[in-house]
Amino acid sequence: MNKDKSLSLNPRPTILVVDDLPENIHGLLEALKDDYGIMVATEGMRAVELAQGPTPPDLVLLDVRMPGMDGYEVCRRLKSDPRTSGIPILFVTIVEASIEKIRGFSMGAADFITKPFDIDEVRARVKTHLELSRLRRALEGRVKRLSEYRHATDVSNIVFRTDPHGVITFVNDAFVQTYGYTREEVIGKTSRILKDPDAAPGLHRELWNTILGGAIWRGTYSNLTKSGDVIYINNTIVPILDADGSIREFISTSVNVTHLIKQEELIKEQTTDALTGLPNRVKLMQDLADAGPSILGMINIDQFKAINDFYGLRNGDKVLLEIGERLQKMSGADAQAYRIGGDLFALLSKNGGDPGRFEQLIDRIIKHLESEAIDCGEDKINIRVTAGICSGADSAYTHAALALERARIERRDYLIYTDQMQIKSHYKDNIHWSQKIRSALADGRIVPFYQPIIDNRNGKVVKYEALMRMIDEEGNVIPPSFLGVAKRTRQYTALTRTIVEQVVKALPESEGEMSINLTVEDIIDANTVSFIAEKLSQPGVGSRIVLEITESEGIESYEEVRQFVNRMKGYGCHFAIDDFGSGYSNFVHLLRLKIDYLKIDGSIIMNIIDNPDSEVIARVIVDAARRLGMRTVAEFVGSAEIQAKVVELGIDFSQGFYLGKPAPQTLGTPRHD
Where is the PAS domain positioned along the sequence (predicted)? Predict the structure, then answer.
């Protein structure tokens, strides 16, 4: 039974022996059967059918003289068919006449073996021609791949060549499509035809100095199309050298990145205050999210509405411009200035910052702004400002605003945020947010947002974490700060139950595990525990749920938690410790809970590049988890650099804004790019 060689079940080459005399076939079979698979045909038409069948041979030994269709006709048919034209054909014949051999070679025969044949010669010739055929196929494959690579490059990249003087000698299709010139219009012209006169000064001089020195140049700059439009290209220019080291030509390979540049300009426009040119509130919130622990100061112009009313809006704008310039100048290398509202500015410390030094900076700025009047032509406008300062990573914006408001009430130049300020505002907040939460629960506006979790072995999305979010009456997403109020007002367990219910309903829409966050309040609440157990007991649910418990939660009764974990594991559920590494006093207790995943705290992951201690801690956690049979998850992966380090450390999974932001719906079947 013949087997399909594409399945590699029989790696031996196959030879088709074609002869009408059984004794000749027998002789060839005896000579070749140990090394090759053998197919046999005793007449020409059958030989053609076998060769053109589903398992064609690798070589044909073909008798010339046969009744009916002779060997020459068989050869002609096989060589005229693209499916079999590449199979080497060796004629086996008693004819030694040169004219017969010439006829055979002209039809495409690879060789002649004369009867009576020498067994060793047959083996040698067969082996040689099989090897030549293999090499030919390999060469054809390489040529085909090179052609495909060239086509792919030609389609995706702009390619042109010049001589050592910059005269264009070749352009590809992408060049023609991008620049709008025909080949005839540019070949023979210098590359200066593409030059943008407004490009960065000195750039082209640096480019030519580099490539004339025999080095490769890479960079992004602007060029002009035939119609005069500006495009931006990311270009690599490679000098091609002769044997003596002299430059023969230059090859330019570039990608049109105009859309990326435009996108960057749009992002800058969206994050920049139009009047002052300072970063705006959107940029401040982004920078706060990226900065980690830092110091934020908010500076408000007192009675700015009165300035606008008395001096006019034009002078009011001049005041804002002048204050923005002074803030930027005075903050220098210590902080970044922002305009975040009509009369509200902010300063964010760089690289963490020193609280004492930052306070001195705010004090100097206030004294300077209030001591030097702002020149508005005929008017000299004196201003007063008030500031609030907050140190730390959590709720910096809210706390700085609270300190500013307290400073205004107490008529102080500035105040630094303290917990006492927060306590005074909690009572109002609790009542206000408690009502909002109750309303959101009733209206179905407590919803899960799903953040993807990546398997670092293959880069694919394999699971999601369901993060609790509240939607206000206008459809805006409320930051998760309301969760603290929910705990204080004993509404948190109701929120958990609604999230669990929605996640379970969403399971059929996706694959993989879903993580749900639990608090101690959930675990010790009998109604919530029963509710979760009932949901996990449903068919196909328990094995797809991961319940996350935060390490920093104030767990007092580990026995109660252990019983909860064991009960839920009975439904196939898995458990994770969230924010692991934020504290170590509970480590021994955590081990007894038989946890499946450790989610490494975001403060460790965010600093893993710049802080050697964070990397050491992460390595220790990964090593300990492996030894204990647990898998690890990196939280707050915010950049490609951090993700690369996470993979290097052997962390099993990754999660963070760089890999995917929380969204109101999952992406269906887990996937990745």
Answer: 145-214
